[in-house]
Amino acid sequence: xxxATSRGSGRSATTTIMDVERLADVSPTPVSRVLNGxxxxxxxxxxxxxxxxxxxxxVRNAHAQALRAASSGLIGVIIHDVADPYFAEIVAGIQEVxxxxxxxxxxxxxxxxxxxxxxxxxxxxxxRADAVILAGGAIGDPDYQRELLRQARxxxxxxxRMITCGRYxxxxxxxxxxNRGGAYLVARHLVQRGHRSIAxxxxxxxxSTTAERAAGLDAALREAGVARDPALSxxxxxxxxxxxxxxxxxxxxxxxxTAIFAxxxxxxxxxxAALREAGxxxxxxxSLAGFDDLPILRDVVxxxxxxxxxxxxxGRRCMALAMDGGGRAPRVETIPVELVERQSVAAPPARxxx
Amino acid sequence: xxxATSRGSGRSATTTIMDVERLADVSPTPVSRVLNGxxxxxxxxxxxxxxxxxxxxxVRNAHAQALRAASSGLIGVIIHDVADPYFAEIVAGIQEVxxxxxxxxxxxxxxxxxxxxxxxxxxxxxxRADAVILAGGAIGDPDYQRELLRQARxxxxxxxRMITCGRYxxxxxxxxxxNRGGAYLVARHLVQRGHRSIAxxxxxxxxSTTAERAAGLDAALREAGVARDPALSxxxxxxxxxxxxxxxxxxxxxxxxTAIFAxxxxxxxxxxAALREAGxxxxxxxSLAGFDDLPILRDVVxxxxxxxxxxxxxGRRCMALAMDGGGRAPRVETIPVELVERQSVAAPPARxxx
DNA sequence: CTGAAAGCGCTAACAA
DNA sequence: TTGTTAGCGCTTTCAG
Lengths: 354, 354
What we know:
Oligomer: homodimer
Strand content of chain A: 5-15%
Low-confidence stretches of chain A: 1-11
Structural class of chain A: alpha/beta
Number of helices of chain A: 12
Mean pLDDT of chain A: 91
Radius of gyration of chain A: 26 Å
Distance between the termini of chain A: 79 Å
Number of strands of chain A: 12
Order of helices and strands of chain A: HHHHEHEHEHEEHEHEHEHEEHEE
C-alpha cells in the first residue's frame, strides 16, 4: 500500500512528483518527461514511472504546472445564463472542442449584469485562462464598455485570447451571427405573406443584439414601403416572460397588427402563450415569428417560424479561434443564418385583428 | 503608465505581487494582508497598496495562491449534458451559490460516457477542486463503479468533497430527488383516472434513475392490481429523440394502451410528437405524463402532466453541502417531488386505443 | 506592524 | 539519457 508524503501528522496527504520519483527510483526529469510525453526516456525508466504513477494514483498538480508554464489549460466562458437554451447550446459547442483538447471550461453566468461580467473577467485573469469567451449581446453602458476594453487589453497582455460571440468589440476575435440579415429575412417573409401591420417585440434596449435585429426589421419594412407604428413596438427581457408581458402589453394597448416579430424564440414562446390566453389563434388570427431556432421549438404547436442561428457551431468556432493563436489583427467570423418557415406564419386574416 | 515586470524582451508581462510591493514601497507581507483582508496593516500602507493594485490593475495569480493554500476555490461540476435543460437548471442553481461565494465552476459534460466522467474527475483532482459535484443518474457498469469509488476516495483524501446529485454512492454526500415516489404518484394518478393499459417509456437500462422511476411505476400498478404487459415497456435515451423513437416503436408494435408514462419530460416531448404524427390526440385518445417539470413544458400544447423536480434548488443544495465542510458520515438529502396535473391526462376513451 | 525567507509542486535549463 | 537546481507567484511563519 503506497502512502503519500510521510508527514508525522495525519494532514491531508497530497501525492507529489517526489513520491513518484522515490517509488520509481529516478529523478524528477524522467517523471516529468514521461508525463508530458515526447521526450527521450529509457524504456526501463518509463515503465517504472508509469507503474509508480498507477500505484500512487498520481495526478499532477495543475496549479504547480500552470505556475511554471504560463498556460493553464483553462477556458473561461462568460454567458448571460446557462438556463437559457441559447447559451446552453453555445456552451455545448465549446465543450465539444475543449473535451477533445484536454482543456477545462470555467463557466460563468453573468445574468446580464455588467459588473459581474467584469468581475468574472478579473477572476479569469487570475486563473491565467488561456482564453475568455464572452457570449451574448453587448451591454450598452459606456462606463462598462470602457472598463471591458481595459480588461480585455490586460487579458491579452497576459497572453490570453479574448473571443466574443454575438457581440462586436474592438480588439477581440468575434463570432457574429448575422442578426440584421436574419431579421431582414423574417420581416420580408412577413411582408411577402401580405402583412402590413407588424408588431415588434424587441429585446432590452441596452443590448447590441436588440439593435441589430431591430435594424433588420426596419430595413425590410422600409424597403417594402411599410410605415412603422411606434405603438406596435414593445421591448422586454430576452426571456419567455419578457415576451409574454410584451405581448400582453401589445394586446392591451389595442393597436392593430396581423403579425408579431419576436426578437428571439424565448420571447416568441411567451408571446404565443399570451396570444393563446387571449383566445387568438396562430397563425389564423395573428402570425408569429421568432429568432434563434432553439431545439425545443419543434415541439411547440404551431411550430414557430424563425431564423436558424447555429449556436452549437458558433461555440465550436469560438474555440477554434481560441486555440489557433491568431495573428495580431482581430478576426471576425460572420455566421450566416437562414429563415426556417414553419406553421406560425400565414396570410393575414381578411379583417384585421386587434 | 505603469508597466509590468521589466524584462528586457517584450515577453508577455505578468504583473506580480513584487510589482505592487515596489510601487507601494512595502514588503510582500502588507500586500498579501491587504489583499486577503482581516490582518493588521497600517492605514498608510493599506492606502499605498490599494493605490498600487489599482494602478497596476493587479490580480493575484490564482495558481500560485492555490499552490500554497491547498484550496483552489474551484468547484468541479460533472453533468451528462448542458444542452439538456434538466442539467442546465441544476448548473444554474449551483452557479447562484458559487457566484455569491467568490468561487468558480469548472463545468464538464460527460455525455454519459463513464470513461469521460472518470477522466474529468482525474482532471479535477489535478485542479485541486474544493468539491466535485456529480449530477445525473449513476451508470451501472461495475468496473466503472469500482473505479469511481476509488477516485472518490482519492478526491476526499485530498481534502475535496464529493457530492452526487440524482444518484447514490457510498461515501459521498447526495442530493436525491424522490424518483420512486414521483413515479408512484403519476402512475397512481393514471390509474385513478381509469387507465389500465399504461405504456412505459423508460430511460437507458444502465442508469439508476431509470430503475428508480420504473420501480415507482411498478409499485403503483401492483398496488392497483394492474397487470403489466412487457410489450408495453420500451426504453430509449433520456432525450426528445429517445422518446420519439420509443413511442413510434410502441405504436408500431400494435400493443393496446390508453396512457403513456415517459420517464422524463424530454422523452414525453418526443412521445407527444410521435403521437401527433400518428394522428392521435392527447389526452382524448391517449394520456401522457412525464417527469421533471422542465420550464419549457408550460409552452407545449397540451400542457403535460408531470412530476416537479426542483432542479435549481437541488443545485443550490449541492453547493450547500459542498461548502459546509461536513462531518465524516456522508449526508443524504432526499428532495420531495410533487405531481403537477395539467392537460395531458384524462380518462381513457370509451374504446381502447391502439 | 513590517521585512526576510522558506517552500507549495512542477518544469526546463544545464551539467554530467 | 538522467540528476541537480533554480525559480514560477504567493502566503506565512519568524524575527525585528
